[in-house]
């Protein structure tokens, strides 16, 4: 029997315990051993829970119990998750987590400590919720040089954008609806400002390119400025607006372009077909070309599904190191975007907007929007670097007002 | 150093050798050891190949060389692949293959032999080419009871259907184009009749439900009867026609509905967005809900990418058994479809076709097709079992001619 402790009896923690007992036979078969939840650590009591008897309040009980070989951390945030994770690893216990903030902030150090103590730090659930992505990237694509990772990494913003596109709701109305449905927090900043997607692309970039990417170095733009006019202009060219986290390989030293921003995505792309709260991650390898992983990026049981898969994996490798590893990183790991090439969506307003567009960008593809003011226009440029774009935007601003611009995928 | 032998220097075999040397550093890093191709077995010589010196013609050389720990079988078919694979496993060598026909025909036996000899028989490339699916299902979804697997498993037929849908080509014209482009064989039966998709769904069903599923028990229908009228009727309801391999769990004894047939798929489904020669596999788990895996289902390097990932895995587990396993199966593993529930597309021709449809099926959703004869009609039924459908089809045939019918996803 493999005894585990679950830290944090919130939504995900409770889901993990449910899955372990609801699917006990399947879990035992796949782990080739019975998994038993010995302790559930939480500051609260849960007298009405069938697992009330397992709930404790003192982490020391867990750290001092040598029979606990795997610790599941579903507290979230960095305090006290960081300390509990570090101490568990140092005590020779493998740790499984769904905590993207902790992995994105302290992942390199915690992976190193796990390695030094011959235990595992696993976090399949930290990116894409229930979607298998960490292990497939590390194992199934092991014959490839990863060139790019690009994904819809936040279900809340994807839901909001979908409602703007399909129901014509304004950003504010779509956000309010998402909050009503429980898809968005009362304070939605972490989602709508792109910070949640940022943490996830940092983890994927580290896995793909071998160096830790710290969120503070990653240019992050959310969806709060997207308007229904932008949505309509995109639609007129058979495109949809998606918030993408992207990481593109620059060199062999682990340097990459890493950023989060809204994009116009062609309906031809499978990423355009990702609806509602679903997530999807496209990975490009130099041999396999594009592969995509799709599923529920959040939610109690999808996330628990990924956590328990890692618990099973940890239980099967109690005395063996897993593949997951990357080196520490710094500001130099994130390449300046100025040389990043893309096509762009640009929307300007003013007299002779169209001629200003042509004078500045040359041949462009104009888009249409029934509800737009007659003196504005939007268009898609040829491919150019970000610095070339910025130079042209500065120039065109001498003649018209810049309303919005986005990359085109 | 891990020495391997490659059996068959055709497209995939050559791709495997290329990937191992083109990505040598990545492969060595991920395998934590250097991978060296010692022998390439083929009946032909390849004097112009940079690997000409490795080409041999006698399998005995490989079987008698104890330094060879992994054998890659990319011969295809069952003769001599079956014998070579069996003897390699009995000799204590792990075997990696892309040979879906062999896995679908003899997989249970070969997995058993591998287990008895404490080596591995790995076949990620046998389903979905470069798409990670076998390992993610076995590991990442290990906490789930798998309820259904449903996928676009054949790129050739998906390309043909796409061209019928997007370019208005007839089946014959689209097939001819696929043959010109090298997407379809000169004898396209294995693809267009659904046999290739059948082998793949058999392997996925065995992995999902634990019992080997032999292709001969699986009802398999191809796309040769699909017409442009069917495509247009589907389009009028915002649906596309896709050839799907499906396996749905019936009970805990490994029984499942397993079949291959063209379906009408709503454009809302991510499966509808799979274009060209790409494949996509949807897996439904009782905790994770739907997850989907998308990528190139065939091709030299995508397939080689999956084969080499397995070679890396085998090299890392020379003395350890992997997870992959299922028991042998028989006719009883494939449940009779009569109780399978679905909505259906039905197209009939004759005087009063519409009233015959209503008299027989009650309230139905009629579809439209500009080019169809005035005396025909097509519609979508409510959900009912296959036996209920067949009874109604028998009844309606007393009044009108049945032109076509398909399941609706």
Radius of gyration of chain A: 23 Å
**Number of domains in the coordinates of chain A?**
3
- Give the biggest beta sheet of chain A: 11 strands, mixed
Q: In CATH, what is the class of the largest domain in chain A?
A: Alpha Beta
Could you characterize the architecture of this molecule?
Two copies of one chain form a homodimer. By secondary structure, chain A is α/β, with parallel strands linked by helices. Chain A folds into three domains: 159 residues, 3-Layer(aba) Sandwich (Rossmann fold); 154 residues, Dihydrodipicolinate Reductase, domain 2 (2-Layer Sandwich); 71 residues, BMC (bacterial microcompartment) domain (Alpha-Beta Plaits), CATH 3.30.70.1710. Chain A is 36% helix and 25% strand. In chain A, the strands form two sheets. In chain A, strands 7, 8, 9, 10, 11, 12, 13, 14, 15, 16 and 17 form an eleven-stranded mixed sheet that branches. The longest helix of chain A is centred in the N-terminal third of the chain and has 17 residues. The first copy, chain A, is elongated and about 75 Å long. Chain A starts with a strand and ends with a strand. Strand 12 of chain A pairs antiparallel with strand 12 of chain B, so a sheet runs across the interface.
